[in-house]
Every structure is written in C-alpha cells, then in structure tokens.
Protein 1
Amino acid sequence: MQSESQTVKDFGEQWLHYRDVKGFFGSLELFSDIIFPFLIPDDIKDCNVAEIGSGSGRIVNMLLQSGARHIIAVDPSEAFEVLRRNIEQPEKVTCLKITGDQLPAYGNLDYVFSIGVLHHIPEPAPVVEAALRALRPGGHFLVWLYGREGNGLYLALIEPLRVLTKRLPHFMLTSLVEIMYWPLVLYIKLCHRLPLPLRGYMMSVLEKMSPEKRRLIIYDQLNPACAKYYTQYEAKKLLSDGKFANIRIHHRHGYSWTVIGTKPINF
Ligand SMILES: C[S@@+](CC[C@H](N)C(=O)[O-])C[C@H]1O[C@@H](n2cnc3c(N)ncnc32)[C@H](O)[C@@H]1O
C-alpha cells in the first residue's frame, strides 16, 4: 500500500536525522507518564515483551530500564541500524525489521506495546491481530494514540498545513521546523501564565524536552504521510474489534489516548 510504505520511508528519514534517545525523551519518568494510570515500570520487571514500531529505540531502552527480561523490537524503517545502535543491553533484545502485522505469533508474551505508531498506519487492524496472537492468554496490549478530543484548535491549524508539509523534502521540512521552533518556545512560556490549549502537555512533557527533541516533535507532527487523530470511541473500538477484553482508556494530558486491553484467558 502506497501511503503505508511512504510512512515507513518518512520515519526512516526522521530517525536517520534525529538519532539520539537521551534525556527526558528517553527517560523512565516519561515512560511512567505514558503508561499511567494502567501500569508502572515495576509491572514490566522480568516480563517478556514486544514493542511494535520501535523507531530509534527510546521505548526499548525504557523497557530495559524497567527490568524486562526480553524484548522483541519491531520496526520496518531504514533507520533499523539506528535502533540497533541505540539499544542499551542488546543481549536482551531481538530486533526484527518487519511491519507490525508480521510480528510472529509467539503466544507467550506478557505485554505488547505500541507507542505512537498505530495512528500512522492506514490499516492498523492486522497489527492489533498480530499483537493478540503474540501475547499469552491474560497478557496485555498497551497503545498510545493521538486523540481528536482536546485537539480541536491544534487540528484546525495543523491539518491544512500537513497537506503541504507531508510532501516537502527533508531539507525544506527541517528549515520549517526551525521557523516554528521559536513560536513554540514562546507558547510554552505563555502556558505558565495562561490556560491555553494543550497546557498540560506543554508543561508536563514538551517543556522538559531538550531543544533538539522539541524540534523532532515538530518534525514528527508535520512529516508522516498518515496521521489519524482518534476519537475515544475509535480508540476503544480498535482493541475491541481485535478481540481484546477488559479495555480501559485514559485521556493523557487531555489530548491523546492511552488504551490497554487484555487477551482473554480462554482464547
Ligand atoms: C512516531 S514513531 C514511534 C517510535 C517509538 N515507538 C517511540 O515512541 O519513540 C512510529 C514508528 O512506527 C514505525 N512504523 C510505521 N509503520 C509501521 C508498521 N506498519 N509496523 C510497525 N511499525 C511501523 C515507523 O517506522 C516509526 O519508527
């Protein structure tokens, strides 16, 4: 599918440019924030897990720091070597250069994670099905998705802009990121004084990122061919259609969804 392969190509370029996973961007503090309120890092200790869409490897390292026993890291992009190089304990990680729907049906994993990935895949259902097959009965699938609710003003600005930016060559996009960086810095400062949209995210997440990582996040918003903003209903349906049970959802910082589901015991 053209837009799927374009998305994978886009991320290859992104990770080859923004390689490092250090600082708050790759921290256990941020991981705790992403998996809250369903999990804490300690829940992952001694577990066998997979991450679908590992990018440059920051979530893999967060899982290692949480004490995971073994991790399957899946990413189809050309930045696969960046992923391999960034991993802190390679002996505990198996890297697979495949798309998420090709995740082998291990049937014994305790957790599968997919953080910021499914909203970039035009047809995510086969990936959700692969996650189900890879888990043990009673295992959990946790995903983080862009949300539609709470993003009204942002989407009114970004969606028309993306019609252009997702077609720009890399060097033009990095120049645009540079132009947008300084208004973003100002906006974060204003959030300290005014109840502006996305204030929670700006102050709890973006402000703690290094300048390079803030630039990466702007790039990441403008670049991918496919970026779907899920309603709460769509986010829950993604997992319920995939036969997950006990689905719970959290409106993270009022702009995105953390969703967790469990593989039924009698599956
Ligand atoms: C926004 S990045 C998220 C990376 C990482 N999870 C993180 O939070 O830093 C999305 C990643 O999904 C990968 N991806 C795109 N299509 C995919 C697919 N069909 N299956 C698995 N991964 C995919 C991209 O190559 C990219 O590295």
Note: The first helix runs from residue 2 to 17.
Protein 2
Amino acid sequence: MTTPDFYETEQALSEYLLFHYGSPAQNLPWAFGPVSALDYPARCVSECLEVVRLPARARALDLGCAVGRSAFELARHCAEVIGIDYSHRFIEVARHLQQHGSMPYAYVEEGHLTTPAMAVVPTEIDRHRITFEQGDAQDLRPDLGLFDVVLLANLVDRLREPRRCLGRLSDWVRLGGQLIVTTPCTWLEDYTARSLWLGGFEQDGRPVRTLETLRTVFEPHFTLARTLDLPFLIREHARKFQWSVALATVWIRR
Ligand SMILES: C[S@@+](CC[C@H](N)C(=O)[O-])C[C@H]1O[C@@H](n2cnc3c(N)ncnc32)[C@H](O)[C@@H]1O
C-alpha cells in the first residue's frame, strides 16, 4: 500500500517502530541478508552530520521524523531538537517515546502472526532535548527559529510539492549550518504529481535526475559538501523486505 494515508495506519506504525528501534536480529532474521542496510535512522545522523561544525547549544530540526529515531540521535549532539511529521499517529507515538522512553508494539512474521516487541530510546540520550509536533514540511509554522542542522530523511519523494518545501529550507538554516537530505528517489504519482517530480523523467530528450534538481534548488544558498549512498532495509514481514539505497546530500548554508 503506498498512499499518503499509509503513514496513519497500524501497518506503517509497526514497520516504522521496527525500522527505527528494532534490533538487527529483529529487522533481519537472515544471516545472509544485507546487514549494511540496518540502523538507517541512526546512520542518517552518524554518517551525515559533521559534529565538528556544530556550535555549543546547537538546534536541530528533523522534518518527516516519523516515530522519531533520527531526532533522538540528533539529540546526542544538539541541545534542542524539534521533530515534525504530518502523521498524527507517528507524532503521538514519538511523543510517548519522548515522555516514557519505551513503547510496546508488535511486528509481523507472516499474515496475522506477529511478535511482541518493545521500542526503546537509547537510555544515554537526554530525551528532554526533544519535542515532537504534527505539521506540514511544506508549510511550517513561521516561529520555529533558525537551526544548525535540518534533516530530511526519505521525505522529499513523499511530498505533494517537494520544490515548495525545499525552496524554503534556506530560511531555516543558520549561516554555516547543515542541511542533510536523504532520498531513495522513489518518485510515485500516489504522492507527487508527475509534473512536480524532482527527477526520474526525460526533459527535452535528456534524463533528469534528482541530484541535478537538488543542485538547482539549493546552490543559490548552500554549498554541497558531500554525497553518500546510504542503504536501508524496511522489513514488511519475515520473508519480505524493501532494500533501498538512499542518495544522501549534505549542504552547508552560505
Ligand atoms: C518514508 S517516511 C521517512 C520517515 C523517516 N524520516 C525515516 O527516515 O524513517 C516519510 C515520512 O514523511 C512524513 N510526511 C509525509 N508528508 C509530509 C509533510 N508534508 N510534512 C511532514 N511530514 C510528512 C510521513 O508521515 C512519514 O513519516
């Protein structure tokens, strides 16, 4: 199922709690599987964030935070983190995790057979640094302030109007601040009208790729510091997985 409402469903909640908080063995019960694709929400921070660039008491914004793992990881390095997601369900659960540190759930083995599990925020993370709120990344409340880090992990190809969101990001990133955008470039008309895709089509007889459009949108305000290929694995059930490779780009605000 791939529709915008997917992120309010029980299936999405279970898949994303496992994706964000599940152990390697829970996410990938096969010794021959792609272990380098595990722990993606944490790796979006550990592999992309340049910690040395952060000022004291840094502020971070995680747009499309889902059930919150990357926002918690940002709090290892930043004094204040705001996580925003359009899904009421995800934000309700992220807030529960922020307040209580854990949340019981179940993940699918096969059909209606599930295994009970507990999502636990790593205990060394100071959860008081994080707040979660429901909101639209394309239309953020104007009083959010400036950030030293803005992360969009696997969000852009799920937006109705990606350019509208990306074109405004320079307003939120402090000079010298970092903008981290990761995307598997899975453009689907269920989420984004074909005319608004950032890549994956031909124009004037030549292919347009997402990276090229990101450059066009960001280069007036940002310098591209790095690109990375980040594999990730989402388990649907014990015998079905989505293995993807996100394009990660790290931009520095000029
Ligand atoms: C593919 S998931 C990625 C979630 C998370 N960043 C991760 O890497 O696991 C896309 C997320 O974006 C959220 N989302 C979709 N449209 C949004 C919007 N307009 N504003 C904020 N979040 C949105 C969805 O609810 C979902 O949590």
Note: The first strand starts at residue 59 and ends at 63.
